[in-house]
# Entry
Amino acid sequence: MSVPDDLRYSKEHEWVRLQGDVATIGITHFAQDQLGDVVFVELPSAGSSVRQFSSLGVVESVKAASDVYSPVSGEIVERNVKVIESPELVNSSPYEDGWLVKVKLADKADLDKLLTPDDYRSHIGETAPSGGD
Amino acid sequence: MTTEALLRTPLHGEHVALGAKMVPFAGWEMPIHYPTGIVTEHRAVRGAAGLFDLSHMGELYLRGKGAGAAADRLVSSDIAGLEVGQARYGLLCNERGTIVDDVIVYRLEAETYLIVVNASNAAKDLEHVRRHLPGGVDLEDASLDTALIAVQGPRAAVILASVTDLEIREATIEDLAPFGVVAARVGGARAWVARTGYTGEDGFEVFLPAERAVGPWSRLLAAGGTLGLLPIGLGARDTLRLEARFSLYGNEIDETTDPIEAGLGWTCKLDKDFVGRDAIARAKEAGPKRRIAGLVVEGGVARHGHPVVHEGAEVGHVTSGTFGPTVGKNIALAYVPVALSKTGTALAVRIRDRDVPAKVIKTAFYKSRSAAAVRERFSGTAEQGEGAKG
# Structure
C-alpha cells in the first residue's frame, strides 16, 4: 500500500499535506482499498469550521457509508468539487486528484498529534517502508 | 460477533487464490468482491458474463409419489403445473400468510423436486418443510453436499455451452428454455443445469456434487476469460438484483411482510391450497396498507433502515439501497403507504438527519435487452415468473 513520505496521517486513515498554513486532506490508499468503489462524497462547504478528530464528511462506497474525520482543526477554505462530481477519484488518485478539502489551520501543533509515515505503515500492518504496493 | 466457525464452500481455495475479500455471510465465509471491485464486477455481468459461487444456498430434495403434491402445498406458486425439466419461483409462507423464504422449485424427475432456499434461512426452512410434509415423501437436506455455480450475463450461454455436454449429443445448453432444467456434464462433472438466476440477465445455475466443483469452476473461468467473464462476489450480486428490483430475504421480505405488500402477489396461486393461502387471500381482499416502491434518490445513497419522509413526517423505511452502476443513479426499495406508492410521487429519504429528495419510479430500475431477447425466443415454449433465485 502506498504511504507517501511527505504526508502526516491519522489513525482513522486520513492524510494531511501542509502548504503554508493550509492543510489539504484526503483518505489514504489503504482506506480507499478497504472501502471499495466510492460512489458518493459529502463534504462541508467553504467557510465552515472543523475540529480535529471530529466528523468532516462522509465517503460512501457501494457497500457502506464511512465517516471521514478531520485530522486538524480550522476553517474549510475549499472543497474538491471534482471529487463530488466524480467520487471514483478517491479510488484512482487518493493522494492527488481525490483530495477532499483544504483547511486553514488554527494551530500547527495539531500536526504533532498525527502519525508519521512510518507510524502509519505500522498502524496498517506494514513494517517495511515502501513507496508502493 | 459470534466466534462460531464459519462454513466454507468447496470453492473457498479458488476465491482466496483469486484475491477475494472474504466476509462472513449467513454462517458462511463468502467472497464479497474480488480485486476488480464491485462496480467492475457488476458491469461484467451486464455486458459480458460473471461467475458466482452460490454453494452457501440450501438444497432440499423431495422424493416419492407424493413429492409433487407436497411441494405444491408448501410453495405459493403453481408447482403442480410444472413439467419434468421446469422450474418456478415461489414463496414458503406460514399460516399467518407472511413469508418464511423465497425459493425456486425445480422438477428434476417425475417424482424428484429440488427446492433451493436462501442460506440465511436454510435451517428454518428445513424445519418448516418437515413440519408440513405428509407421510411417504422423502426429504433430504443436500445443502452441504451440493455446490452451486451460477453463470450470468449475455455471454453466459456461449461460455457454459463450451464446457457442457448434454445427454443428447446434438443438443446445446443454449437451447434450454428460461426456467428449464436438464441433466448435463459440466467440465466433466455430472450436474443439473438450470436457466435461472437472480441478476436480471440471461444466465444459468449449475448444481454439482461438492467434491466435483473445482474443475467446472476453473473450466468456466478459463473458457470465459477471453469473453470478459469475471468472478463475482456477493457485493455485485446485491447491486445486480436490486437494479432488477428482485426482493432479498431479510430486506424486502421476511416473516413480518405478506406477499401482497411485497409486490409478490403474482407468485401466489390463490385457487389452490397451500400453507398461508387463506391469510394471503384475506390480505389481498383487504388491500395492502403499504407497498414496496422503487425510489431514485438525488444527492445521497439510501441504505437499509433509513426513514422515508413525506412532507416532513416519517411514512416508511428503506429496505435496500445502493448506487446502481448500470443505471448510474442512487436507487432504493422502500415500504411506503399505498397512497404514496404511485409513480412520480415526490418523497425524501432521511440520510444522516438530512432529507434527501427521492422519487417513486415505475417497475425495474434496469431491464436487460439480452434477457428479453432470450425470453422472446422461447415465448410459448416455457412459462415463467419474473424472478428467480440465483
Summary: The first strand of chain B starts at residue 7 and ends at 8.
